[in-house]
Design a protein that fits this description.
Layout: E1 6-9, E2 14-17, E3 25-30, H1 41-59, E4 63-68, H2 86-94, H3 98-115, H4 131-143, E5 147-150, E6 153-156, H5 158-164, H6 175-180, E7 197-202, E8 218-220, H7 222-234, E9 238-244, H8 248-263, E10 268-274, E11 277-279, E12 282-283, H9 294-299, H10 311-319, E13 327-329, H11 331-351, H12 364-376, H13 381-399, H14 407-424, H15 433-456, H16 460-472, E14 475-480, E15 483-488
Parallel strand pairs: 3-4, 3-9, 9-10, 11-13
Antiparallel strand pairs: 1-2, 5-6, 6-7, 7-8, 11-12, 14-15
Helix pairs in contact: 2-3, 3-15, 4-7, 4-8, 7-8, 10-11, 11-13, 12-13, 12-14, 15-16
Bound molecules: adenosine monophosphate and zinc ion.
Length: 489
């Protein structure tokens, strides 16, 4: 394949030809979930978008190192180093250790990712597993003179940094404009500049998750974890860094500043940001309370839903919009996607019924080249899907004998169609026996994890109901010390 891949780079606000730093290799870092609660569908949209990108890069033959972190410490409620620690707050609420919260929601996140058929990342590093790397980086930033310590908290000095580097470059904003958007410092503030942010935060007596450091006991700020883990696993400068658009103005802007101050190099060649999943036009978010959980969508158990949708219908719904467009969540849109997905799967099954003849009236290369054109244009999955639907029509015409195809062309068509649908788009035919079994097993695991959660919060009526309802379908559940076992009787 000699066509070139173009990626929209948020940093330059242009589509640029993708030229990896090391030929044949791609290093990609995606900001992962903050595991103090279940991921909602908005989060899933971002991870599914990067799964498509990962799959396509693999398809093109690159050796990809895909790093997606788990944020399991250092995330305060406010973006500006204020508020409670999200993990400690949830631990108190659920009467668990903070690391039990981390474990529980990490496992739940992996379940959801598996159900959506996303490929696991090559490395899934955690913030708590990389405290020494973060401390090391903070020390280096201090040595370079871009940070200062006050009472055991270390702040990044944005004003000083801005004298040498364009701090607001990722959102194309000047320092004055950024300053305008922040509140004046009050008497209780320790930091010197309004835009300064914490690299290390001193522990209070009640802080549960804390580590020793040269500045006393404390915990890392949120932004430093990604700079430290990105550098460790992908180098001072790597190819692609991604996340949702909401991370651009603060988290990623601060990541660039930290890495640049430390390494004197831009950390990332191509910045990629996914647009938001919205509900009635408003961004889906944990704090706004409009976050649909994946299992609410699968079961249809939500006041705004007419019915449940299968994981692949939801994945398909997400892929039908470009990752840089907003996607609004509605029953009508989901129903349309469900139908489209079923037509695509039906076409795949019909492919097996087509009989070859001695001449082809369809040109299979048209499918291949149009798909590459779409995907090479900044991973344009909606256009790729439209091309597939043109071919669904061709497949139906071939099955009805209105068009004809030779055996080699038919073999090529089957292989190409399936590579696109299953390997690149990552869809699964849920009606095939193997995938039905896998889906059932994943859904039972998910329900039983919900039962464990209900038990942990002493909601025994819910936990008993889940067990009894499953028993009605012949699923026998056995409680074990470390979780559960089940079998279908
Ligand atoms: P969080 O767990 O809140 O740190 O978010 C994990 C990822 O989901 C980040 O890359 C966010 O930018 C992304 N995200 C959060 N809300 C949405 C949304 N409504 N639509 C798409 N992505 C989102
Ligand atoms: Zn991050």
């Amino acid at each position: 394949m000699d066509s070139k891949l173009f990626i929209y780079n948020t940093l330059t606000r242009k589509k640029e030809e993708f030229i990896p730093i090391n030929p044949g290799h791609v290093g990609i870092y995606v900001c992962g979930p903050t595991v103090y609660s279940d991921v909602h569908l908005g989060n899933c949209r971002t991870f599914i978008s990067f799964d498509l990108i990962y799959r396509y890069l693999l398809h093109l033959g690159f050796k990809v190192r895909y790093v997606r972190n788990i944020t399991d410490a250092g995330h305060l409620e406010g973006d500006r180093d204020e508020g409670d620690d999200k993990f400690a707050k949830k631990a108190k609420l659920e009467q668990l250790e903070p690391m039990e919260i981390v474990q529980k929601y990490t496992l739940a996140f992996r379940d959801v990712m598996r159900i959506f058929n996303t490929l696991p990342p090559s490395i899934e590093p955690t913030a708590t597993g990389h405290i020494s790397e973060q401390i090391e980086m903070i020390k280096q930033i201090l040595e370079q003179g871009y940070a200062y310590e006050i009472n055991g908290t270390v702040y990044f000095d944005v004003e000083k940094y801005s004298k040498e580097y364009p701090y607001g470059q990722l959102t194309n904003r000047k320092l004055e404009d950024l300053l305008e958007g922040t509140r004046e410092l009050g008497g209780q503030d320790e930091k010197r500049g309004r835009l300064d942010f914490a690299l290390w935060i001193t522990a209070k007596p009640e802080t549960l998750m804390k580590w020793p450091s040269p500045w006393g006991w404390g915990f890392p700020g949120w932004h430093i974890e990604c700079s430290a883990m990105g550098r460790k696993y992908l180098g001072d400068t790597f190819d692609i860094h991604g996340g949702g658009m909401d991370l651009q103005a603060t988290h990623h802007t601060n990541e660039i500043a930290q890495s640049q101050a430390c390494n004197h190099k831009a950390p990332v060649k191509y910045w990629m940001h996914t647009n938001m999943l919205t509900v009635n036009g408003a961004r889906m978010s944990k704090s706004a309370g409009n976050g649909f959980l994946p299992n609410e969508l699968f079961t249809g158990n939500h006041p705004l839903l007419d019915k449940g949708y299968s994981p692949m219908a939801v994945r398909f719904f997400m892929l039908q919009s470009h990752y840089r467009s907003t996607l609004d969540f509605s029953n009508e849109a989901l129903q349309a996607s469900e139908k489209g997905f079923q037509r695509l799967m039906a076409a795949n099954r019909i492919l097996n019924k087509i009989k070859a003849s001695d001449k082809s009236t369809v040109v299979v290369n048209d499918l291949t080249s149009r798909i590459y054109d779409a995907m090479n244009d900044d991973f344009n999955s909606p256009v790729a899907i439209a091309v597939l639907f043109d071919w669904v029509r061709n497949i139906n015409s071939l099955a009805e004998g209105k068009e004809s195809i030779t055996q080699p062309d038919l073999d090529l068509l089957k292989q190409t169609f399936r590579t696109i649908v299953f390997d690149i788009l990552g869809l699964v035919d849920e009606q095939s026996e193997g995938s039905k079994q896998e889906l059932t097993s994943n859904l039972i695991d998910m329900l039983l994890n919900m039962r464990l959660e209900a038990k942990a919060r002493k909601d025994f009526s819910t936990s008993d109901k889940i067990r009894d309802d499953l028993a009605k379908f012949g699923v026998v559940v056995r409680d074990r010390k470390d979780g559960f076992d089940w079998e279908i009787s």
